[in-house]
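Hi team,

Filling in the usual template for the complex we talked about on Friday. All components are listed, including any nucleic acid strands or ligand strings, so the model treats them as one assembly.

SUBMITTER: L.P.
PURPOSE: interface mapping
COMPONENTS: two
RESIDUES: 752
SEQUENCES:
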Amino acid sequence: METNNKLHISVSPHFKSPRTTQSIMLDVLIALAPAAIAGCFIFGWGAMLVIAATVAAAVLSEFVYCKITKKPNTAGDLSAAVTGLLLALNLPANIPVWQAVIGAVFAVVCVKCLFGGIGRNFANPAITARIFMLIAFVEVGKSAAYPVWETVGGATPLVLLSEGKKLDLLSLFIGDKGGAIGEVCILALLIGGIYLLARKVISWHAPVCYIATVFLMSLIREGFSLTGALAWVLSGGVVLAAFFMATDYSTTPTTGLGKAVFGIGAGLLTVLIRFFGAYPEGASFAILIMNILTPYIDRFTARRPFGAGGVAK
Amino acid sequence: MLFSLHGIHVPHRKNTADMKPVRMVPPETVTIPMSMHIGKPADPVVKVGDKVYVGTLIGAQSGFVSAPVYSSVSGTVAKLEEIILSNGTKGCAVVIKSDGEMTPDPEIKAPTVDSKETLIEAIKNAGTVGLGGAGFPSYIKFNTPEGKHVDEMIINGAECEPYITSDTRTMIDKTEDIRRAIDYILRYIDIGRVIIGIENNKPKAIEAMRALEADERITVKVLPSLYPQGGEKVLVYHTTGKVIPAGKLPLDVGCIVVNVTTLGAIGNYIATGMPIVSKCVTVDGSAVKEPKNLIVPIGTKLSDVFEFAGGFRCEPKKVLLGGPMMGIAVPTLDTPVMKNTNATVAFDEKDAAPKPETACIRCGGCANHCPVSLNPAAIMRAYKSGDTDALAQLRVDICMECGCCSYTCPAGQRLVETNKLSKALLREEAMKKKEAEKK
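RESULT (copied from the run log):
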């Protein structure tokens, strides 16, 4: 036959799943959209500006980094866009835009690209950048934006909770409270989280273990008051961190067991910082510390090859 | 069995499951390789000009791990030539010019099977090899040591590869041959029970095999359609809960695993004396005009198979011997159909296009879908840095090359390829060590 010389040769398998890095990142962006939209609605134009600035800065810095280092350009894989958006959602809406931009550049260049790009960074870029900003710019820690309809700013829910105040759970759930752009509307975060679970982009282990640990520890602190414990879970950045930071591929463990260990560890660290630390919120620090422990968790939770010693039934 | 093994959900595409195989008109010539099995190639016993019939011996078994080869058409031997086999090595093949008559060899008669020895002899003379793809000479499996009790014979009807329905058709159309083979095997070989494993996407095959459950030693086990259900270790675990240790055979845990089409061929030989000379082959894929099942004389070139099947819908860009998960991409359509060919799949440009390779994002998909719990991404990193100690520790030797890792990888990494290379590297290392010890 005349077609003989044109046949492709390759090693099996000859079927590949349609999923690509880009499609995964697109799924994450879709999952973050409800929280971002809710944030814009709650905090107004300031939030929109911060989101636009960090996403643009993140994508642009990856593009420029690849150009300068003459590496194949990976800005199109959307992972920089995810980093930029995640960073914005962790920042208050009233942060000066130039600070947000510096944070985004730091996240992409210093935390990801310098370590070799996607998949090689050991720490979550958005979280690390937020902590960097917390130290570098006083405003990030001090200020928290408040919903546009609140004329007088007060303290954030976590501060109120540690003062022993009772908070309205429904307001906490829908985002009628002070905080970072993307962390306040729990409803929107859950929609995004469920989307990622349904699309099998993430597994349940880390988010469920993380949130459950925070809930149980808060339950103990609140003298087994369900509403009291729920208020701790719905306040601050726990839900955002559980679904979108504790599930980051390159900086969290591989196996289900490892992910569960990560979630429990992050939950414990979060409440320790919340209850006893100098900062009102500990989610970011908890994720970063667990990121550092990830290689060790991976080593101890690796699956045992089938039939390699120890015949188990 | 506490947990089932991991795997992947591949598209099934069993388009031809309801299509009764059509007997192919014999092609002008067939090219029958002397090596269609694992082990030593058969020795050709014919010379140019010899008259042969369907079922005439043309290649004699040449050692313990070997199998005889028979003519699949009637006609005359045109030449003995060296061809490139589908696995890339060179080997001898007998080219036979068909007279178009398909006359069976007049000397063929049903064998007398009345003892274990005569049964093993029959399985040997049937020319059967692992027809699921492995191509291991079948008689060796059944030739169990004296006094050895086998707990289970597991019949592999899983057929977990996309597209392929030839085992499905064998189960539906050749139920009697399968029943006969099981009968004889249970009569002369000490086997406790028989489990027929079939994936749940083949209701008609399951129904056909249920008829065999009249014998209480035989059960049909319906398995989830999760690739690679038909992998030997996976099937043994999912049917019996037994774990075959690395480097061991099913017999070491008291099992014999045999493909359902292999059994059909044995049953047919016992009844008629006709050895394996043709195969039911599924012809499918995006480049094929009319997918169908064909009964193809062994040695028929793929070009003849596709032509008889109705030709191509568009220019084929990739042609496989076997299914898309573990099949071999052939360089030319001159490649002949072999004993262990159960399908040929032709892809159009879109399906043949390779997935772009990007950086590993450590999603863990490869490790979490590996049926034998390996970590292909870690193996890839170890291979790239030439760390053979790490490769040995990661147990790459256990890999069965099922392809789940490469299939699932969003970054398009060629993980199966590195696993193969890593295994070769470890073998080389072991050889070097042995030689050094000798000195």
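MY TAKE: DSSP finds 14 helices and no strands in chain A. The first helix of chain A runs from residue 21 to 43.

Thanks, L.
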